[in-house]
Design brief:
Belongs to the outer membrane factor (OMF) (TC 1.B.17) family. With about 475 residues, the protein is an alpha+beta fold. It has a single domain, classed as Outer membrane efflux proteins (OEP), CATH 1.20.1600. It is about 60% helix and about 10% strand. The protein contains 11 helices and 4 strands, in the order H-H-H-H-H-E-E-H-H-H-H-E-E-H-H. It has a 4-stranded antiparallel sheet, with no helix packed on it. Strand 1 (about 110-120) and strand 2 (about 125-140) form a beta hairpin. The longest helix has about 70 residues, at about 145-210.
Length: about 475
């Protein structure tokens, strides 16, 4: 067969059929209405915060810019954390799988060479040589089954990519939270050491007075109790500090480096104030919300693929090449073959219907998960804004109480040295001062952690390209 087959005409006809027959079997991708309020449940002034960059546009180097040690630790974590490494490799894997699915939309073309030798009717051996191009089982995607499968794979890749962004945001905020807790517990250790030294000296003096008959057994027992409580508090603080170091090492993906830039204590820590914007803006800044939306898109595409399975599938196989009984004449004689196969499902024991039902159920699950992600995002931002509205007042009140308790301790100590106050009054003032100092550290930590969590809730924490030079 030497006549030329009109391949270009066939391709054009197939393209027209594809454009005309490929209906919208998949549900239309539309962002569902957010099942949350249109405004945050705080005053507009609190929601606005300071005028500046939105959290999602503010790189972490700027948000945590006041503490050089924290910035260095975050940089190390982004380079070495294993969870982030896995998340980024998942993105690479999903990207490759999306390319595989997209490649199924195009024919696979191969080149083949063959030689055979067989006897003819006279008993003589005859050589046969063939060379050519082959298209193997190319599906004409009239009803969009392959396209929807490709779209689903691409949506899964986008979801995985957003998951990678979410992993980085979580790592940055987790490292910052662990670091601040480590700093706070370090201050608790110093506070405990100072308090224990004071109580040990008080116990020594009261024991001397007791032995001299100038103090009662009640005074001695109270001093011993206060000293033991100080030992317990110091042990607890040291344990917490050691566990904080372990948490930092895990997030860093390596032991805590010995040589680090100088850090800041809690009182000197300062985080950038970011505006909350509107709830609708959070939807385009939160990677977990975008991840859920991409998963919903994948579920829609899967419905389209499941619906397309009810329609005929058409497969084409073709060869175009040359054949000859003499190797020297191989490229003188052209041959081609074209075969097609159409398969219309008639009876499949309900398999296609079950697949469609499963795809619809998966789409319903993806929709519910998207709505839950939106609600979770709203709740996290609202909690952070509530904290921003109240932590300043609480911190001021706690600082005032601490100053008052320290002043009371100073006055009681003077009265005790002059014989005007008892040892029980002194021990009570010491306990109150120590408790107030502990509470002040805890409130400072809670306020800082609220700022970290609000920054994360607003989609902040991604290292933008514009900030690469600052890292």
């Amino acid at each position: 067969m030497k006549q030329r087959f009109p391949l270009q005409a066939l391709a054009a006809a197939a393209s027209l059929l594809l454009l005309s027959a490929c209906g919208a079997l998949a549900p239309k991708n539309e962002r569902p209405a957010a099942p949350v309020a249109q405004a945050w449940p705080v005053s507009p002034a609190v929601a606005a915060g300071a005028q500046g960059q939105a959290a999602a546009e503010l790189p972490w180097q700027s948000f945590y810019g006041q503490d050089a040690r924290l910035r260095e630790l975050i940089k190390l974590a982004l380079e070495n954390n294993r969870d982030l490494r896995v998340a980024l490799l998942n993105v690479e894997q999903a990207r490759a799988l999306a390319r595989v699915a997209d490649a199924a939309r195009l024919p696979t073309v191969g080149v083949g060479l063959a030689a055979s030798r067989q006897p003819d009717s006279t008993g003589k051996s005859v050589n046969n040589y063939q060379a050519g191009l082959q298209i193997t089982s190319y599906e004409i995607d009239l009803f969009g089954r392959v396209k929807n499968q490709s779209d689903a794979a691409m949506a899964r890749y986008l979801a995985t990519a957003e998951g990678g962004r979410a992993a980085q945001i979580s790592l940055v905020s987790g490292l910052a939270s662990a670091y601040l807790a480590w700093v706070a517990d370090g201050e608790m250790v110093k506070l405990g050491e100072g308090t224990l030294a004071t109580r040990a000296e008080s116990l020594r003096l009261i024991r001397l007075k007791y032995e001299a008959g100038a103090a009662s057994a009640l005074d001695l027992a109270a001093a011993e109790s206060a000293h033991a409580a100080g030992l317990a508090a110091l042990a607890q603080a040291r344990r917490a500090q050691a566990q904080d170091e372990n948490a930092l090492a895990l997030l860093l993906g390596q032991p805590l480096p010995a040589a680090l830039p100088a850090g800041r204590n809690l009182a000197a820590q300062s985080l950038a104030d970011v505006p909350a914007g509107l709830p609708s803006e959070v939807l385009v800044n939160r990677p977990d919300v975008l991840q859920a939306e991409a998963q919903l898109m994948a579920a829609n595409a899967n419905i389209g693929a499941a619906r397309a399975a009810f329609f005929p599938s058409i497969l084409l196989t073709s060869n175009f090449g040359t054949a000859s009984s003499a190797l020297s004449d191989l490229f003188k004689n052209s041959v081609w073959t074209l075969s097609g196969q159409a398969l219309l499902p008639i009876f499949d024991a309900g398999r296609n219907r079950a697949n469609l039902d499963a795809a619809k159920a998966a789409q319903g699950i993806a929709l519910a998960q998207y709505e839950k992600a939106v609600q979770q995002a709203f709740r996290e931002v609202a909690d952070g804004l509530a904290g921003r509205a109240t932590f300043t007042e609480q911190l001021q009140a706690q600082a005032a109480q601490t100053r008052a308790e320290n002043e009371r301790l100073r006055l009681v100590d003077l009265r005790y040295n002059n014989g005007a106050s008892s040892s029980l009054e002194l021990l009570d003032a010491q306990r109150a001062s120590f408790a107030a100092e502990q509470a002040l550290v805890q409130v400072r930590l809670a306020a800082l952690l609220n700022g970290v969590n609000l920054y994360k809730a607003l989609g902040g924490g991604v290292e933008l390209k514009a900030a690469d030079g600052k890292s």
